[in-house]
Design a protein that fits this description.
The longest helix is centred in the middle third of the chain and has 24 residues, at about 110-135. The protein has helices at about 20-30, 45-50, 50-60, 70-85, 100, 110-135, 165-185, 210-220, 225-235, 260-270, and strands spanning about 10-15, 35-40, 90-95, 140-150, 190-195, 250. The protein has a single domain (about 10-270), classed as Rossmann fold (3-Layer(aba) Sandwich), CATH 3.40.50.720. Helix 1 (about 20-30) crosses helix 9 (about 225-235) and helix 6 (about 110-135) runs parallel beside helix 7. It has about 270 residues and is an alpha/beta fold. The chain has 10 helices and 6 strands; from the N terminus they run βαβαααβααβαβααβα. The protein starts with 9 loop residues before the first strand and ends with a helix. A 6-stranded parallel sheet has the order 2-1-3-4-5-6, sandwiched between helices.
Length: about 270
């Protein structure tokens, strides 16, 4: 059920790869809520995904862009403003990639050149996107910019590798740029710390299935689904959250505030 909370809003959604992607779900919800937007991903990702299919399904223009390239981002912003017929109301940054994780490099034996690539793709691209949007003055007053993050920015999850530091950097950029964007024209910048989610990126992390189950049992409400995350994003793009900025917002069924859950202890006792 939609409520039209984004009627008349224009945006850009980064990172939809396939139907498992969080960004894909966000696009579907935003479309249902009345928004118009462009979709973008890196050219290499688009060759392996099905973003064009999503664009055709919901009537959105797809604009390839490497989020680490300032030139590509400038082209993306210019073409989006032209295609949408005006300034932007919201941007979703849903981008993350670690070569070290993909190649199963241990954190204590990490390839630092690959680490730099992780930071550039997963975090610095967020700053680059906001810098281009800021310099081009393309955001409407009380617009909203979101980045998707994970609690590994604050807690240790050994197999998440340097993506943890990347997410910490992403959250810091949101706070710092949130100040400058707020002063400039009241644009909000926040991050959402989502539960472990069965996405293409998430399931590539070692031991993901076991941790997904652990998190689901630890959280009083269970893991937050991709659909509910998309709905939460829509509320943060809407006018109902105009005074929320520079926040890292946990959308995780309560996991972030748990110390222990007796259910897990009981399960362990029963196994013994």
């Amino acid at each position: 059920m939609s409520n039209g909370i984004l009627k008349g809003k224009r945006g850009i959604i980064f990172g939809a790869l396939d139907e498992q992607s969080l960004a894909w779900k966000v696009a579907e919800v935003c479309h249902a809520e009345g928004a118009t937007f462009t979709l973008t991903n890196a050219p290499v990702a688009m060759r392996f995904g099905s973003l064009q299919k999503l664009g055709e399904k919901i009537g959105c223009e797809v604009i390839p862009a490497d989020a680490t390239s300032m030139e590509d981002l400038e082209n993306l912003i210019d073409k989006s403003v032209e295609a949408l017929g005006g300034k932007i109301d919201f941007i979703l940054h849903s981008i993350g990639m670690s070569v070290n994780v993909r190649k199963k490099k241990e954190y204590t034996d990490i390839n630092h050149e690959w680490m730099k690539k992780t930071f550039d793709v997963s975090a610095i691209s967020f700053h680059k996107t906001m810098q281009v949007a800021y310099s081009k003055d393309c955001m409407n007053t009380y617009g909203s910019i979101l980045g998707l993050t994970y609690i590994a920015a604050q807690r240790v999850f050994p197999d998440y590798s340097e993506m943890a530091e990347s997410k910490a950097l992403l959250e810091s950029f949101a706070r710092s740029f949130g100040y400058h964007f707020g002063v400039k024209n009241k644009v909000r910048v926040n991050t959402i710390s989502q539960s472990p989610t069965m996405t293409t990126a998430g399931t590539g992390v070692k031991g993901f299935d076991q941790f997904f189950d652990y998190s689901d049992k630890m959280s009083p409400l269970g893991n937050a689904s991709a659909e509910s995350c998309a709905q939460y994003c829509a509320t943060l793009f809407s006018d109902y959250t105009r005074m929320v900025t520079m926040q890292n917002l946990y959308h995780d069924g309560g996991f972030s505030n748990m110390g222990m859950n007796p259910t897990l202890l009981n399960n362990q006792t029963n196994m013994e």
